[in-house]
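chain below, 57 aa
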Amino acid sequence: MDALGTIAAVILIALVIAKELLSASENGKALFLRKIIGVASYPLLFAFFTVVLAKML
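prediction:
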């Protein structure tokens, strides 16, 4: 299970980095991709914080 959490954390970090890099661009396609990445990262953020909270309790 720890490997799955590590993979999810790496994917989350990659999505956040990609979102920040795309936000610097004013290209329409980049803004569209930023929105898609934002939607994909919200469930991962929720899962990450849930796992962290579960580990703390």
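Residues 9 and 15 are 10 Å apart (CA to CA). Residues 2-56 form one domain.
thats it, cya
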